[in-house]
Predict the 3D structure of the following.
Amino acid sequence: MKIVKGKEEGVKQFKPEFVKQVPKAPAYLNTRAKKYFKEVAQVLIDAERLKNIYLETLAILADNLSQKEWAIREMSAMNRNKPGSGYKQKYNTGATNITTEMVVKRDAEKRILECLAVFGMDPKSDKQLGQKDSGQYELFEMLEKKMQGNQMVS
């Protein structure tokens, strides 16, 4: 990581650079999250999309992948014991709500998608970052053109 001088004396700014090797996972991540951190880091490095300024985003992504996995495993275990119990909980009052595991899974999925957008791993951000290698956006463009063509015929 290079440090360049800022506009004011004594102000340090980090210069964004592509990461060349898989960095060490942060100590605060659990074992599964560290595994995801290393796996996803390698994918992003191979695609030349991981910059040093995005390492914390990578940690957030890994942590949420781990949380999603935990929630799915817990819901599966509950559903094996009593079908449907992994999705809905019933209170003594008769009220029902989705389970805590469903909430964890839903929130983790939302944060995962937000993190993937930072790395250009979804069609919209892919185009914004000027990535040409994934082909995701071209597929959506093709579908959009076909849909517009069908609307004109109608």
Remarks:
- Residues 135-139, 150-154 have pLDDT under 50 and may be disordered.
- Residues 15 and 40 are 22 Å apart (CA to CA).
- Residues 16-121 form one domain.
